[in-house]
Design a protein that fits this description.
This protein has 352 residues and is α/β, with parallel strands linked by helices. It is built from 15 helices and 13 strands. The strands form two sheets. The protein has a seven-stranded parallel beta sheet with strand order 3-2-1-4-5-6-7, with helices on both faces.
Length: 352
């Protein structure tokens, strides 16, 4: 069995879709070595030496190769199954006889079209429409995304599989920061709702705890930087290394994630993996991930966010939630979820 994967997110994205791609591919490669082939638009100096990486012979028009011409390479490499890891498949692959899987993480472009330029909305819609129609199996990371696919595209429900993202428990730390802090790991885009978080925190006058918001720049970065300057307790950090991010997780008091909509909600699981309690939104996929181990609030109401922060500032309340984390993490056990992926590929192989 030879499985081809779109390598764009594996190499280019440091968080989110990149973490998902590396989690899946590296774990699969550990268990079924020599079966994994990545297809990427350019050669990489550093990657897993055990994984084959195929690049275009002529490194021009990379987006066209990734969306169209890659099909020739898939046939040349005798790929049995191709897995698109981020909402798309190469056009024309349905004519090749290669079995296809696509992971659709979310349909935020359909739910929040105002956040995208018209040309981007058009491109995303074409890619999603083709992928959901022609994929042999669609994987979503949450029931929320499954519902959205069916709602927006009338997709055949029988070919959709919900497989959450897995995570491994991290090494906890007894070390505490000199100044206790709440950690929010998030990109700085409108949907992530950081402004409401800052409003809620500003209304808490306690000087006993700080707030650190870390992540990648987005369309609200300038606004959030301006607002954060008004409160000396708030610290913003951008584009951190995994090592630094892990250190922040280990040493924080608890985490918070006020997003207005998610296809999954990886920061919730990341907090759990470090044994940290988290307060998060009570909508979309967040309760699917947090289960009963998270505290919830209305992300559109800064007073609701404020109340959740105040409650988790209480150590006794935090400990009640922390005790529920191990059982919740069992539902996202990495080995079990990788076995589910392998079963999915094996099922497709029987139809070739």
């Amino acid at each position: 069995m030879r499985i081809g994967f779109d390598g764009k997110r594996y190499f280019n994205n440091l968080t989110g879709l990149g973490n998902y791609s590396r989690w899946l591919i590296n774990n699969l490669n550990d268990q079924i070595p020599q079966s994994i082939v990545l297809f990427h638009t350019k050669k990489q100096n550093e990657y897993n030496d055990d994984i084959s990486v195929i690049t275009p012979e002529i490194p021009l028009l990379k987006s066209i190769w990734r969306s169209w011409l890659i099909v020739r390479n898939l046939k040349k490499e005798k790929i049995n199954i191709y897995h698109g890891l981020s909402n798309e498949l190469p056009f024309g692959i349905h004519k090749t006889g290669i079995k296809t899987v696509v992971t659709i993480h979310d349909l935020i472009n359909k739910r929040y079209p105002e956040n995208y330029a018209p040309i981007d909305r058009w491109i995303y819609d074409i890619k999603l429409r083709y992928a959901q129609k022609h994929a042999d199996i669609i994987i979503t990371v949450s029931e929320q995304t499954k519902k959205d696919i069916i709602h927006y595209y009338k997709t055949d429900e029988s070919k959709i599989r919900v497989i959450p993202i897995g995570i491994s428990k991290k090494k906890a730390s007894s070390k505490k920061s000199d100044k206790p802090y709440i950690l929010c790991v998030s990109s700085f885009t409108k949907r992530k709702n950081i402004r409401t978080l800052l409003e809620a925190f500003e209304s808490i006058k306690s000087k006993k705890i700080n707030l650190k918001v870390v992540g990648s720049h987005g369309n609200t970065s300038k606004e959030i930087i301006r607002l954060a300057k008004k409160d000396q307790r708030v610290e913003l950090q951008f584009n951190l290394s995994n090592k630094k991010l892990n250190e922040l997780y280990r040493n924080c008091e608890f985490c918070i994630y006020p997003s207005l909509f998610e296809g999954f909600g990886i920061p919730i699981l990341e907090a759990f993996s470090f044994g940290k309690s988290i307060a998060t939104s009570n909508i979309s996929s967040m309760p699917e991930v947090g289960k009963n181990a998270a505290m919830y609030f209305d992300p559109k109401d800064h007073l609701s966010v404020r109340q959740a922060i105040l409650q988790l500032m209480n150590q006794d309340i935090r400990e009640k939630f922390e005790k529920k984390i191990p059982k919740t993490l069992q539902l996202f056990d990495s080995d079990k979820l990788i076995d589910t992926y392998k079963s999915t590929y094996n099922e497709l192989m029987t139809t070739i």
